[in-house]
Every structure is written in structure tokens, then in C-alpha cells.
Request: fold
Amino acid sequence: MMETTQRWLKKYVAFLKLEKSLSVNSVSAYLSDLQKLIDFVGDSKDILLLNSKDLEEFLCQLRDLGINARSQARILSGIKSFYKFLLIEDYLQIDPTELIDSPSLGKHLPEVLSVHEIDSILAGIDLSVKEGQRNKAMIETLYSCGLRVSELVQLKLSNCYFKEEYIMVEGKGSKQRLVPISTKAIHEIQLWLLDRSQLAAQKGSEDFVFLNRRGAGLTRSMVFRIIKEQAALAGIQKNISPHTLRHSFATHLLEGGANLRVIQQMLGHESIQTTEIYTHMDKTYLREQILAFHPRNQKK
Reply:
């Protein structure tokens, strides 16, 4: 941790204890939330120098990790408290968290897109622009494989086994898993690779499947923006993100009859309880399934 940050953290702890009269446990909770931001930044940048864009990308990571909206709001609240303290102490003149809204707590489950809506998003991509085929391949891969956005941006050419129709994905905790990939997604990626071959990949990004126009790897926030823009162009009013495609992937598998354990393995969930959120379906569908398959409803 950078020396300046460490010094201000000590002052912040004293402020929480003396000025705010917080308990030891409360102070520990504030620091724990702040530590998540420090871990995200690493040694690349001092957290005292972060801007709103950096913080938005941090929130993107929280969403990608599956942290629920209530926990996201709590973490953001702790971070806002720290930056307000820096303003009070006249260390900062501008609060980078000022324009960042807390996530909505009204909905506990992400939106689900229909297959028609996903097809509409893909059909609306302008393939005449340089990024068009990349965006199409990217969205198709997210939906076809149920990837987290972090898994998508870190996907490597050396981990793509198109002949066998599998990709090797590095998930949370650096755990790797094999994920089947559809022939449609393979086709779109191979078309993108023709365009990608015209780019000069930056050092360290040579093996990434998806690159930006400068030859560097994509960021999570960039993927969020692209998907929101394409959804808007398709006339979809839902509040969607890359995770919406992952949720739709799992929900469509479940509705098609896939076993929950299979979906668990595909998504890279350690616990089946995490996968069970994908059993969210409308009541009409559930009623139809019960009437069709429960033995008490079978006509003799």
C-alpha cells in the first residue's frame, strides 16, 4: 500500500473512533469495505488519486463477482465516507464518489432476456464499423457460454479449442473450467479473428481474444457500455448488463430441461445454492410444468 494512503487510513480510523464514536466492529467493517477497493487497485494507482471512472469499474467488478445490490450499496457507502473525510480534511477538493449512485435495492434478481430479445440485440449490431464483428462475437460468447464479464475479457486464444468446441475459462479464485461453446459463437469469433489480425496487439495483450481498437484488452466497464448501447438500439427497455446474458443463459437452459447440477458446473459455482437463483421463472411457466409433469396431474 502506498505510504500516503496508509497515513490517511490511520487518520481515518482515528476520525471514526473519536469523531464518529464508532465501535471497534463498525470501524473494522468500514475498513473492510475500503480494503476491497484497495485490493482492486493494487499497486497500479493510489486510491487517493482515483476518479469516478475508476470507481465505476470497481463497482462493475462487484456486480460481476455476484455481490448483491444491498452489499454493493454498503461497500459504496463505506467508500463514500472515506472520501468525505478527505474533503473535510482539505486533502481533496473534488469527491470522486459524488456522482456515483448506489445500486437499486428494489430488484433482487437480474432481468432475463428472451431468445428473441438476444437475437434482436445481435441483429442490430452495425457490422460495417471496425468494432461491429468484435461486439457481435463478444455478446454471442457471453450468452452461448454463460461467462462472467471478467472471464470474457480474460479469454485467451491459447485456451480456445474450437475443433473440440470447448474453451478454457479462468473463473473466480483463478479456478479453471472447460465450457462448451456453440458453433454459432465459434463462427462469430472466427470472423472477428480476421479483423483482429489487422490489429497490432499491445505487449501483454497478444493472447487475448477480444481487443480494443488500440490493440489492448477490453475493460469490464467497456463491455458494460457496449451491451447497454446495443440493447438500447434494439429498443429493449430493460436494465441489462453482461450478467443479464449470463442469467439468461442459465434460465434458458433450465427452462429447456437442463439439470441444475449441470448448470452449476457450466457457471463455475462452487455451491448449488448459488445456482438456485436461476430457478427464477414466471408463475405461468411453473404452472405449465407442474401440470405437464407432476404424477398427480397425469390423466389416466
